[in-house]
UniProtKB/TrEMBL annotation:
The chain crosses the membrane at residues 525-547, 553-573, 580-597, 603-625, 632-650, 670-691, 722-740, 804-821. The lineage of its organism: Bacteria, Bacillati, Actinomycetota, Actinomycetes, Micrococcales. SMART domains: AAA. It comes from Lacisediminihabitans profunda. It is found in: Cell membrane. Keywords: ATP-binding, Cell membrane, Membrane, Nucleotide-binding, Repeat, Transmembrane, Transmembrane helix, Transport. Residues 11-244, 258-499 form the ABC transporter domain. This is ATP-binding cassette domain-containing protein.
């Protein structure tokens, strides 16, 4: 592009300010992005970068300022609005709801104009991935993916939206050199199409390589801006941290003496994806592990932590360690710090203090009792000199910046007094200033005699930090670089030249993942149906009267009620809540209808009023949850009590019998199947279609799976929750109508137990009580199974205790089976 040509920016953020409780995140920040250029937004963690792009994407609401996109200015952007106007964003933590499939997640991220028809969506997505060099199964579940894989999928979704502006928030943190090269090639293609790129990163070499303009934030304010070509790398770093950095890396160890014995000695180690690997680490040494991602170095490091070593020997300070588990490695003095800090190493909701002392409870609790003052003393001792930015030691560790979280992990390791320290991606998600402090800490640990092993995808980092680097290729150590040979060029050259992999082809999801034994959402329905048939056959052998037409008709009619209450509970559970008012709404519905059971037209009016009452209760529940932020369990418990009270006032005693003509009409069968069951089946199919085949269904599942990520995906989470509670109220009222068709009388106490039954139905149907998943068909079959259990007990002539045992065994088996399947799938994925 001709630099002298004046081009109108496609994204303009003007005077943006944002304040959180006690924190001024942004103060009158202005940034613009021009077509065909990369604009880098730089700054330390907490400088306001992610808040700024969140405002542009609509996931964060500014206090003041305007957002201009595609020629239109607004004071508040919505995620869906931003996407429709051509803005796509790739977040530092991928905004992909864990319970969705890859296909559903991508479709949810696309603007309406770019979304393909559902019938051909899977083929379209497979072709799109193939065009990008990605091998990804559209049916895979997001929760089964690694962080790297999720990043690639979100990038691919952004590219599929054909954006006018692409925002990339730390896009290479989870990617290796191969994927980074792939991403930069995609960026070049977008620039050729005049797409504006907003690029957030801590990696200065990336800025120098691809960016045209830069804006530097510090403490929520702009402290520098201009053309990247006008700044040296050192000047950029100085702007970011607010001070001059004489050196990024500490001085390395002098040449070790030949008489020193290694602290860590590994001989002929083999395991998953690596074989015959050997290494030794002398006191004072930092040894790095390098290579193109996926060549076994990561698995090798983790095997040294006690997970995955099949053969070979590992010795610590001359003693052979039997690497059976993480525990055996820890007892031998090996400390492991994984790259996924919050996912694997830290307790996000627990305090800094609790995280620091977690592995050292014997020291913190010498008599098995909590000693707060001792914990404080140990924590302060551990973090001394690390400059952990936290208000207090009681602050939840998840609220800290990435750099401070990493420092907490390092403090924990120091407190454990290890002999060997294994560090995976030590500066992932860490700003420039914190990196210097972390490098200094690692060097100090090595100087104290600890063997330090670092795995990093950053060759510059390995060059500046390590005394020796092992370069892996195809599961083996391809090269060992020492002393002056440890350079970025040598590391990268050894990694690239030793592999035959294309630098632009990324395999994001191995096909083995789909060969593992699986049980889909509807697979649980098949299991429950089989249990129902087996129970029916066993009961028929004992008493042939079980299969009489009269009993079957009664069983199926009664099942309709259980199906409907299960579906009602499913709607709320899928969005992450529990509805305790379902049984009360069933009772109220029957009571309302009982006042109109004297004639056909009056009865129809009663049904309409009952359904209206259910909708009203659901609306109240939804408003309590979405407007007042009351937890669903509490909100629905309150309304349940109120609804029961109304029902008791209306019908202090059972009454309001329906006429024989109405009862006969309600008992109509279609081909021997009760009409009420046909109604329940029709509703089941409708909900199945809504959940699995519509954008609304994807939104419901996303909202329950992860509300924050769902919001970033453009889902209106409060609307989803409101829709779920209103739907649940309506379905519970329909269940009240069906129950009344059996009893023909209004009773405020009838149906109260159905709340617990509804929860049982969704649990054995395999729905997660934490939200995000569930099958309407499985819930329907679960309702039939529960009614079959109840009905069979009479024909089996079992005592009351055996009745409870039988019901418990069936329910337990149906509920535990999905857990067994998930465990088998997890083990298969690790093989």
């Amino acid at each position: 592009m001709n630099e002298s040509t004046t081009v109108e920016p496609v994204l303009v953020l003007s005077d943006i300010s944002k304040t959180y409780p006690g924190v001024r995140a942004l103060s009158s920040v202005s940034v613009s992005a021009a077509p065909g250029k990369v604009h880098a937004i730089l700054g330390e963690n907490g400088a306001g970068k992610s808040t700024l792009v969140g405002i542009a994407a609509g996931s964060v609401v500014p206090d003041s300022g305007t957002i201009g996109l595609a020629g239109e200015s607004v004071t508040r952007m919505q995620p869906r609005m931003a996407r429709e106007r051509g803005l796509a964003i790739v977040y530092q933590v991928p905004a992909l709801a864990p319970s969705l499939t890859v296909l559903d997640a991508v479709l949810l991220l696309l603007p309406d104009s770019k979304r393909p028809p559902r019938s051909g969506a899977a083929a379209w997505l497979t072709a799109h991935f193939a065009s990008l060099g990605l091998t990804i199964d559209p049916t895979a579940t997001i929760s089964a993916l690694s962080l790297r894989e999720a990043h690639l999928i979100e990038i691919a979704a952004a590219l599929a939206s054909d954006p006018r502006v692409l925002v990339l928030d730390e896009p290479t943190e989870a990617l290796g050199p191969e994927e980074t090269t792939w991403l930069f090639a995609r960026i070049a293609e977008l620039l050729a199409k005049n797409v504006a790129i907003v690029y957030i990163t801590h990696r200065i070499p990336e800025v120098v390589e691809i960016a045209h303009d830069l804006t530097v934030l510090r403490d929520g304010q702009v402290v520098g801006r201009g053309k990247v070509a006008d700044f040296s790398a050192d000047q950029i770093v100085e702007l970011i941290v607010g001070r001059s950095l004489e050196t990024t890396f500490p001085d390395k160890q002098q040449a070790p003496g030949t008489a020193l014995e290694p602290v860590l000695l590994v001989s002929d180690a083999s395991g998953a994806r690596f074989s015959d690997c050997s290494m030794s680490v002398l006191p004072g040494q930092i040894v790095g592990l390098a290579g193109v991602e996926g060549n076994g170095q990561r698995e090798f490091l983790r095997a040294l932590s006690g997970k995955g070593l099949v053969s070979g020997t590992v010795s610590v300070a001359g003693t052979v360690v039997r690497m059976r588990s993480h525990g055996s490695a820890t007892r031998a003095g090996i400390a492991f710090l994984p790259g996924d800090r919050l996912g694997e190493a830290m307790f996000g909701k627990m305090s800094v203090r609790e995280n620091v002392v977690a592995p050292s409870l014997d020291s913190a609790m010498p008599r098995g009792l909590a000693n707060r003052s001792l914990e404080y003393s140990l924590s302060q001792q551990a973090i001394a000199g690390l400059a952990v930015k936290t208000p207090t030691l009681e602050t939840p560790v998840s609220s800290l910046s990435g750099g401070s979280q990493q420092k907490v992990l390092l403090a924990r390791a120091r407190l454990g007094d290890p002999r060997v320290l294994l560090v995976e991606d030590p500066t992932q998600g860490v700003d420039a200033g914190a990196r210097v402090e972390i490098y200094a800490f690692l060097r100090a640990m090595a100087d104290s005699g600890i063997a330090v092993v670092v795995l990093s995808t950053d060759a510059v980092e390995l060059e500046g930090l390590c005394d020796q680097v092992l370069v892996f290729s195809r599961g083996r150590v391809q090269a060992v670089l020492d002393g002056s040979d440890v350079t970025e060029r040598s590391i990268t050259g050894a990694a690239v030249m030793s592999t035959g992999h294309s630098a632009t082809t990324v395999s994001a999801l191995p096909t083995r993942r789909r060969r593992a034994f699986s049980l889909g959402r509807e697979g649980q329905a098949g299991v429950l149906a089989a249990l129902t048939v087996l129970l029916g056959l066993a009961t028929t052998i004992v008493s042939s009267a079980f299969v009489s037409s009269l009993n079957m008709s009664q069983l199926l009619a009664a099942s309709a009620t259980l199906i409907l209450v299960g579906l009602a509970q499913l709607m709320v559970v899928m969005t992450g809540g529990i509805d305790l008012s379902i049984g009360s709404v069933v009772a109220l519905s029957g009571v309302v209808i009982s006042y109109f059971g004297t004639s056909g037209p009056a009865f129809a009016l009663g049904v309409v009023l009952a359904l209206g009452a259910g909708l009203l209760v659901g609306l109240v529940n939804g408003l309590l949850v979405t407007r007042l932020s009351i937890p669903p369990v509490i909100a629905t418990l309150v309304t349940s009590i109120a609804v029961v009270g109304v029902a008791q006032v209306l019908r202090p005693n059972p009454g309001g019998s329906a006429t024989p003509e109405i009862m006969t009409a309600l008992g109509t069968t279609v081909g021997g199947i009760p009409l009420v069951l046909v109604l329940a089946i029709v509703i089941t199919i409708a909900l199945w279609f809504l959940i699995t085949r519509t954008g609304l269904g994807r939104g419901l599942r996303a909202a329950g799976s992860d509300p924050v990520k769902a919001n970033r995906m453009g889902v209106n989470v409060p609307s989803m929750r409101l829709f779920a509670t209103v739907s649940a109220g309506f379905l519970a009222a329909v269940a009240g109508f069906v129950l009344y068709s059996k009893t023909g009388i209004g009773d405020a106490n009838t149906g109260q137990s159905l709340t617990l039954t509804s929860v049982t139905a969704i649990v054995i149907a395999g729905a997660s009580i934490f939200g995000g998943s569930g099958s309407a068909i499985a819930v329907a079959v679960a309702g039939i199974l529960l009614q079959t259990i109840t009905n069979s007990l009479t024909f089996l002539s079992l005592s009351l205790s055996w009745q409870y045992w039988l019901q418990g065994v069936f329910v337990l088996f149906a509920a535990v089976l999905p857990m067994i399947v998930r465990l088998r799938r997890s083990r298969a994925d690790r093989r």
